[in-house]
# Entry
Amino acid sequence: MYFPDSAKQAGDAGVPVVVVFPGNTQSAATFTDCSQWWAIANDEGCAVIVMGEYCAKSAAGLTYGDTADSANFSRAAVLLMEDVVSGKADVKIDTTRVYGSGHSLGSRTIQTLTHNSEAATYAAVASTSFHNEEFTATGGMPSYLMVGQADLPFLQKDPWSPPEAGEAPAQGETIQDGAVCNWVKGAQKANGLDVSFVDNDKASFLAACSSYSEAGRYYTYTWNDASDAPLVQFTRTLAREHNCYPEEFKLAWDFLKHYSVGEDGARYYSPSAFAEDDKVAILK
# Structure
């Protein structure tokens, strides 16, 4: 758990928290350094929890437990930070602004939690290189997925392109229209966005976007709601394999910081990232 000195300047407003799940076999200490979430925390004044893995399968292999284990672990970590660690650091936590992030299997884990059982805890999720296609929580979840151009095989397809005939699913995935395509459609539906596009038709896909950019290294596609909140976002990073790229976590924070969730489950979007009194209820 990390509180930068900048977090101590927040006062009674409290600081947002990012709960980060590392990639499979990566320790919390290693991922803290390689992801550079600590640097984002320094610059932005947020707190960070980097979740540890344990030897669930062998004495030499770190990984996560099952979904229930991960849910309990994340709940306990947030409560520990709020009730114990924050007091020692003289920092107040803003529990309406708890965000999820991660990479690879950690991305899969945090997306599974935020899109399902733990949606009430998290205000938004933004993660890299693995996803969850199951969306059971009501009330939506602002979601951002980033993948590399040369990422895991089932992520390499463009979101408008289904897999090749006979292509085998990877790591237990059920691939129908294409993994990323399914994620985009699922996230849109979960967030109440009335959009649709034709599979394997890029023109249709782009026409369905609220905005998109295919310039530079980051090809980013965004879908907004009626209040112009960007509730679903997808980025393909050119010339990146399945690795942890710190610059993408800056993009993740730029997405996450605009959202909050109330005790009643209502979600809000602030164009200024709560620097001003401009939050609006997310329309569905």
Observations:
- The chain has a mean pLDDT of 89.
